[in-house]
Structures are given as structure tokens and as C-alpha cells.
Amino acid sequence: MTETAVQIYVDADACPVKDEVLRVAARHGAAVTLVANFGLRPSRDPMIRTVMVPQGADAADDWIVEHAMPGDIVVTNDIPLAGRALGKGAAVLGATGKPFTAASIGMALAMRELNQHLRETGESRGFNASFTAKDRQNFLQALDEAVVKARRS
């Protein structure tokens, strides 16, 4: 069985698991591209690339979708980006380790729209759950499994 190189794209603006991505990638020899509108420090590691995109609502998302290919892994909490990346054949993980899949993306998009409507009408204040150590642990495990699976496919 041959193993292929793995590319991980990270929607890095406000991503709470960048360090975890870098740890897992280093362990597996995977390449990482951190994409953001601002605030990224360049890395000396040749396996880590930073891409600064122009300011704009979907500039980082557009860049990731343009470059993602089947078998790549995209890390994002942005549900529309997750849907677009799935459409390109990439595996997609949220920061809590929850995978976005073809079967789950429709419901995730619908819930996003419902929650946005509730916030706009004042029915909800839109508080998000806190990011926990358990979420970080779940992400590490899910990313490790996704990289192993991507290397084998």
C-alpha cells in the first residue's frame, strides 16, 4: 500500500487549534497551509506555509477552495466554507474535531441560517459554547485519524 503526501489547509483567522494542527502535521510529515486576512507569523519550517489574503469577507475561504483538492484536509468552523471544500472532495474538520460530511453539511447550513435569523430578530443572543480541553483533545484525535486516512487513500 502506498501512502501519499497530505496537505492540510487551515482557515486560520480565529482558529483555536493552529498549534494542534502543526503538531499532528509534524508527526505525519504533512504539509500545512495557514490562510488568513491578518496576524500570521511566517514559519521557518518548509512544511508550513502562510498565506495572507486581502481583507474581504470570503477572501481566505475563496483561496482555500481554489487550492483544495480531493484528499486534502480543511480545518474550519466556517460552515459555508466547509460545504464548498466538501464539494472539492476535501475532508473537513471543525475545531472541536467534528467532521463535516456530505450527509451532515445540509443540516449544518440550515441550522446556521436559523440561528442567524434568530439573532437578527432578537430571539437569541447567539452565545457559543466555550472551547474546552475536551474539544481540543477530540480535535487532535480526529485530525490524526483524518491524516492517516488521507495518506492511505
Short description:
The chain has 153 residues and is of the alpha/beta class. It has helices at residues 18-28, 59-67, 79-87, 105-120, 133-152; strands at 7-11, 31-36, 48-52, 73-75, 91-93, 99-100. It is built from five helices and six strands, in the order E-H-E-E-H-E-H-E-E-H-H.
Written overview of the protein:
The relative contact order is 0.18. This protein is α/β, with parallel strands linked by helices and 153 residues long. Helix 1 (18-28) runs parallel beside helix 5 (133-152) and helix 3 packs antiparallel against helix 4 (105-120). Strands 3-2-1-4-5-6 form a six-stranded mixed β-sheet, with helices on both faces. It has helices at 18-28, 59-67, 79-87, 105-120, 133-152; strands at residues 7-11, 31-36, 48-52, 73-75, 91-93, 99-100. The model has no long low-confidence stretch (mean pLDDT 88). The protein has one domain (7-101, 132-152): Rossmann fold (3-Layer(aba) Sandwich).
